[in-house]
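User: two proteins, same treatment. go.

Assistant:
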Amino acid sequence: MVIQINVKAGVLLAGLSPRFPSGETEKIFTVASGTTLGDLLKIAAIPGDHVGFAAVNGEKADSNYLLQQGDEVIFFPYIVGG
C-alpha cells in the first residue's frame, strides 16, 4: 500500500534537493506504508545535516515518526545568527 505525504521544505532546504525543481518548496511524495519521517528525509533528498527539526501536522516529530496518509511534513533548517 502507498500513501501520499505533503512536504514543505522552504527555499533553503528545497534548493539543496534535486527532488524540488525550479524553486518549488512544496511537493506531494508517494511513499510506501510504513515509511518513517527519517526515511522521507532521504526520499526527498534533503541533506539531514541542514535540517534543524521537522513538524508533522503542526507538531514537532522525530525521525522515527511513522507517516500516515495525508500527513503534512515541514522541514525546518538550522537557524544561525550572531
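Protein 2:
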Amino acid sequence: LIEWGGNPMELLISDEAVTLPVTMTDGKWHHVCVTWKGSGQNLAPWHAIKAGGVFILGQEQDTMGGRFDVTQSFTGQLSDLQFWSRVLTTNEIHKQATCASHLTGDVVSWAEESVELHGGLAELPFDPCH
C-alpha cells in the first residue's frame, strides 16, 4: 500500500467501522496486515461474513451496491491484496512483509481474482518484492 491519502484508514464490516492507527504519507510502500474475527467485542461482534456478498475496496459504501462519495475514496496505489480464512502466525506475517515467502490468500488472492475497475483506475504490473 502506498499513500493512503487524506482520509483515515478504516476497516468497515456491516456498517461498523474502526479507524486504524496508521499514517502512510511518505511515498514509500508499506505492508499492512489486519486481523478480525466476528466473535467477542469491538468491531462487528458476532457478525459472520456470509458467502455471496460484495467486497468493495477503496470506497466507503453508503448503500448496498451504490451511493459512493468521491471524497471518501482511496487515493494511492495498492498491490498484493490477500485474504485468509484464518489468522496468520507472527512468523508468516513477518515472512510476507520481508518477502521471505509469498503466501496466497485462500479467500481472496490478488493474482487469482478478477477485479472490476471503476472511476479511472488502471491496473499496472508490479512486484512488491523487487
